[in-house]
Amino acid sequence: MVMIVLPALLDSRWLAVATTFVIFTIVALSQDIVLGKSGMFNMGQALFFGLGAYTTAVCNSVFGWPLLATLPLAILIPALFGIILAGPIIHLRGDYLLVVTIGFNIVFVQALQNNLFGVTGGPNGIFGLEMLNVPGLTAFQEFTPYYAALAVLVLTLFVIHNLESSKIGRALHYLREDDLAAGSIGINTRIYKIFAFSLGAGIAGMAGTVYANQYSAVSPEAFDFLQSVLFFSIVIVGGSSVPGILLGVFIMFVLPEIFREFATWRYFIFGFAMIFTMILRPRGIWPAKFGRIPKAFIDSRR
Amino acid sequence: MDIFLQQLVNGLTIGSMFALIALGYTMVYGVMKLINFAHGDLVAGSAFVGLFVFSELLGGEVSLPVVIGVFLLTIVVIALLGFTVERLAYRPLRTAPRLSAVVSALGASMVIQNGIMLLWGPQMHIFPELIPSMIWDIGGVVISLMQVLIMALSMILMIGLYLFVEKTKIGTAIRASAIDQDAARLMGINVNNIIVTIFLIGSALGAVGGLFIGLYYRGITFNMGWQYGLYAFVAAIMGGIGNIPGAMLGGVLLGLFNAFIAGYISSTWADAFTFILLIVILIVRPTGILGERVAEKV
Question: What's the ipTM?
Answer without folding.
Answer: 0.78
